[in-house]
Task: inverse folding
């Protein structure tokens, strides 16, 4: 891939990143609100609402930075073209730093809420371990910040830039994984409830056979009909 094509790709990634990472974080925060704050507005509710607002404002602003960083836009991937560009290095460092801070905050909120619930310590550890998978996203965002810092000091711009892109993709993937792992226990319970065990196969076969076998009729079926003439009801004859 040529440098021009690489710079184009990197610019498109910066634009899509803001939308993707906000959508991922927004879904996780809504999940936390639904799980922990659906009954009353506690501390976790306001923390999640504050994180939603902060992330929305921040990523909305940074969505436009890679779009309008140069005039004309083609100067982004062809630096020799006449025009002017903003100095976006400091802005991208601020974006990566905010990303790390918000990831750590989002990881801390559910852990704090879990350990304030009335449940056994063993269960708290198990539920915390599910949400702790979000630490993978934190690690990816920290490494992305590291490559952003290196990017301002290196001559091998293309290589370092694409390393940061790879960690950005990894961060989004880890965030999606974390949000899905929370509901996996419920999915497992549902599948276990509709899947018969090996020991129940004979019972299931008998139940299906009984269901398909018609019920035996009684020796004589009597339907009492009212006599139209005298209105009396005839009684069934006695058995021989």
Result:
């Amino acid at each position: 891939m040529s440098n021009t094509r690489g710079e184009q790709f990197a610019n498109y990634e910066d634009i899509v990143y803001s939308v993707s990472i906000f959508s991922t974080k927004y879904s996780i925060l809504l999940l936390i609100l639904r799980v922990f704050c659906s009954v009353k507005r506690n501390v976790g509710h306001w923390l999640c609402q504050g994180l939603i607002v902060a992330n929305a404002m921040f990523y909305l602003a940074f969505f436009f930075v890679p779009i309008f960083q140069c005039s004309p836009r083609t100067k982004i991937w062809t630096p020799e073209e006449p025009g002017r560009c903003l100095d976006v290095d400091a802005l991208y460092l601020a974006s990566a730093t905010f990303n790390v801070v918000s990831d750590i905050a989002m990881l801390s909120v559910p852990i704090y809420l879990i350990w304030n619930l009335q449940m056994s310590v063993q269960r708290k550890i198990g539920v915390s371990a599910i949400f702790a998978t979000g630490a993978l996203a934190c690690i990816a965002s920290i490494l992305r910040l590291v490559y952003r810092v290196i990017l301002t000091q290196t001559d091998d711009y293309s290589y370092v830039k694409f390393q940061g892109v790879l960690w950005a993709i990894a961060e989004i993937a880890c965030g999606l994984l974390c949000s899905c792992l929370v509901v996996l226990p419920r999915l497992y319970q549902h599948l276990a409830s509709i899947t018969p065990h090996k020991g129940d196969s004979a019972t299931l076969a008998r139940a299906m056979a009984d269901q398909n076998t018609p019920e035996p009729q009684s020796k004589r079926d009597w339907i009492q009909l009212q006599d139209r003439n005298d209105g009396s009801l005839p009684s069934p004859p006695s058995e021989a």
